[in-house]
Amino acid sequence: MDNDNEQFESMSVPKAILKNAIPTIVGMIVILIYNIADTFFVGQTNDPIQVAAVSLATPVFLLFMATGNLIGIGGTSVISRAFGEKRQAYAQQVSSFCFYASWIVGILFSLVFFVEMSTILSAIGVSEDTIGPTRQYLLYIAPSAPFVIISIAFGNIVRAEGKAKQAMIGMMLGTALNILLDPIFIIGLDMGVAGAAVATLIGNIVSAGYFLSMFSRGRFRLSIAFKDFRIKGVLWPVVAIGVPAALNNVMMSTSVIILNNVLTAYGDVAIAAMGIASKVMMIAVLLQIGLGAGIQPLLGYSFGAGNAQRFRSILNVSMVYALVMGSVLTLVTFLSSDLIISAFIEDKSVVDQGVRFVHILLFSGPIVGVMFVFINTLQAMGAARESLVLSISRQGFVFIPMLFVMNAWFGLDGVVFAQPTADLVSVIMAVFLVYPYLKKYLPHDKETASLELGEQPAQ
Prior knowledge:
Layout: H1 2-9, H2 13-43, H3 48-84, H4 88-115, H5 117-123, H6 131-141, H7 145-157, H8 164-188, H9 193-216, H10 235-263, H11 268-305, H12 308-344, H13 348-361, H14 368-381, H15 384-391, H16 393-397, H17 399-410, H18 412-441, H19 446-453
Helix pairs in contact: 2-3, 2-8, 2-9, 2-11, 2-12, 3-4, 3-6, 3-7, 3-10, 3-11, 4-7, 6-9, 7-8, 7-9, 8-9, 10-15, 10-17, 11-12, 11-13, 11-14, 12-13, 12-14, 14-15, 14-18, 17-18
């Protein structure tokens, strides 16, 4: 326990950030690879219709991710603050609640998707050509819901006690198996998109199994025992922070559905090109999300312990890291976009459009990570309202109106430019939302800071 607390209390800030952020960033890459692997190997069939089917089904996977993040990020915020306040028993109650909630919600999702498959296919914008392969993909993705949710939720939660490395391993096991099975099922067994979904299902079962085995062997201070399960005093604190985090994924899912419906007017090639371009961009975005998520337990612990000076140091160093990372990723992605897109599919029309789309989407690349640092800062402090606004801005109430307006004014170019424009607006909003909150709860004066940090933000 002392070794775990060292990174929260006495380790140098840059070292503590890297110790937590690097495994978390790797975990984000793992999540990305789960999604990209399917598109990559399906793309080797050189069939734009099957690639489009995977893109159309992406919102379903994002919905499962959203639920995992609701439970996982909400739980992480509450648990890290509880550890800072030395409330171990309460932290165990929260982790137990998160475990059983993950199972129940995941099973319900699977049942709903099987019963309402036709309605869901219509909602995500399938065409006559894509309805068949999209249905095949979803038939195997649907039962993966509880395992995806468990994997993502506990990939977050175990970081609250300083186990970032174990969180990374859990995610990597499933990904490695997914990558191994994809070419076997998709190409070797000629299963196409159905094979991609089966590989994803098996990978997530293995990932969830890893976390369960670690808990059963007593490797974590947290608990999944039913005796620790509580709803009262646990549900609301988790949901209050988890909902804003989940809404980020929900809005991603919703925006992809709306985007695909808008792109339908421009043909299946445009849908396939945007699907691949979006996955390329997810590399840069998820790495920056990983940095923000990696610092949240550090910030939450400092907030719970009343250590305002360390809190500010973590935030300031993280901002610098975010700007540097964003700039480097933008440059690397720009220079290698042709190579990356071509790796997914050989169809020249899809490649040409995909490269152009990536170049447009990169306009906001250098600064978008700042927003994720701010979102996680607010979540760490329990600032539900402010983090909610930021979480649904980038892909929600800023992006969606921008999409329709720019489509009407500029056509296909406007559709693509809508995302970087929404990113810039959201970053500006983040600065104006976070600054007053920091001024109130983290004044520069040390004595006042400690006093203010003893208060919990009113929600």
